[in-house]
Structure formats: structure tokens, C-alpha cells
Amino acid sequence: MGRRRKVKAKTYELDIETLSHEGRGISHFDDKIIFTRGALPGEKIIANRSLSRAKYEEADVVEILTPSPDRIEPKCAVYGICGGCSFQHLSSENQINAKQTWLQSAFMGQAKTEPKEWLDPLQVRSWGYRRKARLGVRYVHKKEKVLVGFRERKSSFITVMERCEVLHPSLGDNLEVLAECIEGLSCKAQVPQIEVAIAENDTILILRHLEPLTIEDEAVLRDYAERLSITWYTQSGGMDTVKPLDSAVNLSYSLPEHNIEMNFLPTDFTQVNFELNQKMMSLALSLLELNDEDKVIDLFCGLGNFTLPIARQAKKVVGVEGDKGLIERAKENAERNGIDNALFYKADLFEDVSGFEWFRGQTYNKALIDPARTGAIEIVELLPKLGVERLVYVSCNPATLARDATKLLELGYQLEKAGVMDMFPQTAHVESIALFVKKS
């Protein structure tokens, strides 16, 4: 692999016109589009070039000559250095408005349509919400100091940070103490990362270590576990080596409106924002308009996050997911919550599924899909064969949602409602939800 060519220094004075879908300011200079990090529409700025291509360039703000009235002071002391956030210079209200504009642009640009009705954006608290994360760890030999935090923007270095404003306070307020703990380990130079999984009543940290832990190391971890009210898991190799340092704990989150408690493992996928997840759940179920005669299919169902609440209101629901472990947990959660009208199946939804028992000869009048960023074009094309009349699509990528919406329109569905949900405040990540109804 060749080295990345060093960018020749260049400074611009730019007038920012609008925001890109990644939250960067867009302007034009010398017949090129310039994408500038940290800039807002209406601002006049000085920026330094960071990347140059034939049709566009990237830059970073170095001075704001005329600030936008929407600009605010970032809350975090290392904002702009840390790669964890990209939007703290914009208020939460303006962040969500920008995300709604991006979703609208994606629909109009690809599907050439927009919903009959725009839903009000879903928002909860903007700080201390994040419960899943991967923190980098690095021992700096020259300073004999351990750094724990997110990586710097466009860099492999760990940000020097005392706290994190978006992480749940159980951890976000204690990064320095966590670093102090790692400094006490004999293998501190061989600890590259810590995986974070914060449940409603437990904070789990998975310590990745490239050398075996000594008895003394384990004692240090136990001491800090008590100080920080955390539980350590360790990982010496692949994911199959993740294990509790002492006793495993039962992690859970609740969906009180639906009388459901979901158990999960530290390595399982869960939504990072529990409060927003509860609001999203209620919205999704209201859009489905469930009744006790409905047969529903939940595709990419994971732990059963949507499946089990649906089961409370429908006649039958089938959840399908590609991860065997998540399917096992979904079945366990159904049993634990006294739900007997939910069935779960493992299947790769990007492959041919026509031979599976949940598909062959089956019909479902309603569906929910919640795919990864790549979208669900393969399964979307099969929905009419399943008899789906009403579909709720939860998306973490407006581009693939719009692409799949184009196919749904071709298949005879209408885009009735859509809106954005602020799952990741202070970032440019867009979570959205859309309702499609089959034309009669």
C-alpha cells in the first residue's frame, strides 16, 4: 500500500452556503466544492486545506470571521480534537432540523418523493446518553501515562481527555480514574481498547489485553471495579475469549410502556440511547396500528427489541435475524416476559430466503425492518410476496433508506410518513423512521 500523499498547504477565505450530509460546511472556490469541518451556513471563515481531489477539497476551520447566529460554544473541552463528536457547535434543536433536511434531501434526490406527512422529530437529553462505545487505550512511554478515550479526528492517537460529555456519566465522568487503573497493570502497554456496555443498573467494561493478566493485575482491576461500581470482563483474543473477570452479571434494559425487560450480553448489539429507544418503540408501534388479528414479521430483529412489544398487541409475530446468539437471547427474552406468540428464526437476509419455513407459503399483513447502514434492498423486494400491506422502516442511513424507498414505490407502496430521531446527539448520525402503505 502506498503512502498517503502529503497535501500541499493552502488557506482559503470562504463563504459557507449550506451543510453536507456529514455536517460539514459547503462552499465553492476555484471551481471546486470545499467541504469544511466545523463551519455553519452563512459564516465567513478562514480554513486550511486537509485533502485535495479533482472535483473537491476538504478543509478545517482556523478562524471564524463572521459567525452564524446558530453557532454555540461546545460543551466539551476537547471538541474539535476528539473524533467522537462533530456537531457540538450547533444547538440540539438546530442539529435535529439539519438531520430532517438531510432526510428530505435523500428522499427527493433518489426516490423523487417525500412523505405525505413529516413526523415531529424525536429527541431526549443531548448529553450523557451513550451506553455503548469502544474506547481506545494507549500507554505513552515518554510520559509514563495511560490515555483512555476516543481517537483523535482523522488520527490513530488517543485524545487526551479527562471526561466525555456524551458517554453515560457512570463512565464519562471517570475516564481519568479508569486510566489510573490501567496504569497499575503490568501489561498496560499491551491494552489497546476497552469495550463499554452500560445497562440500566450495571456498567460493563471489556478489557482487551494482548498479554496474560497476573494475579496482581486482577487485584488492581477488582479494586477499581469497587471504586467505579463497574464489572470487568476480559478479552485475550477473539470474541469467543470474552469472559467475566469474576462472576457474570445479568444486563438488562426495560420498555416500561410495554411491560418488557430485555436481557443482553455485553457483546450484543443494543441501541446506544435507551431513552430514545423507548420513544422510538412507541412511535413504531403506533405507526403499525396493531390489533389482535395482525400477523407481523420483524426483519433484522436482533434481541427482539421491536418483536416483543409487537407481540403484546398482535396475534402473531415472527422475528428473523442473522446472528445466532441474538436469536437465542430473543427466545429467552420472550420466555422471560411470558410471551408465547413470538417465533424467532436465524437467516441471512441478504441471501435467498424463499426456502425458509417462515417465508415459504406464509403471509404477514404488517412488517417492521431495522437493517444496518447498508439497508435492506434484498428483502424489500420480497415484501409483496409476503402480503405485507403496512411497513415501518427504521433506518440509520438516509441514503440507503431513500434507495430502498425507490424500490418500494416501484412495488406499489406509498410513503405515508417519515421523520428523524436523535439517537446520536452531537454527531451527524441520522436515525430515521418511515411508514409505507401498499396501494389498494
Helix-strand blueprint:
Blueprint: E1 11-15, E2 18-19, E3 25-29, E4 32-37, E5 44-52, E6 56-66, H1 92-111, E7 117-118, E8 132-140, E9 145-149, H2 169-172, H3 175-183, E10 193-198, E11 203-208, H4 215-228, E12 231-235, E13 243-244, E14 251-255, E15 260-264, H5 274-288, E16 295-299, H6 307-313, E17 316-321, H7 324-336, E18 342-346, E19 366-369, H8 377-380, E20 390-395, H9 398-410, E21 413-421, E22 431-438
Parallel strand pairs: 4-6, 7-21, 11-12, 16-17, 16-19, 17-18, 19-20
Antiparallel strand pairs: 1-5, 2-3, 3-4, 5-6, 8-9, 8-10, 10-11, 12-13, 14-15, 20-22, 21-22
Helix pairs in contact: 1-9, 3-4
How would you characterize the overall build of this protein?
It is globular and about 65 Å long. It is of the alpha/beta class and 440 residues long. Helices cover 22% and strands 29% of the residues. Strand 14 and strand 15 (260-264) form a beta hairpin. It has nine helices and 22 strands. The chain has three domains: 11-71, OB fold (Dihydrolipoamide Acetyltransferase, E2P) (Beta Barrel); 96-125 and 273-438, Rossmann fold; 132-244, OB fold (Dihydrolipoamide Acetyltransferase, E2P) (Beta Barrel), CATH 2.40.50.
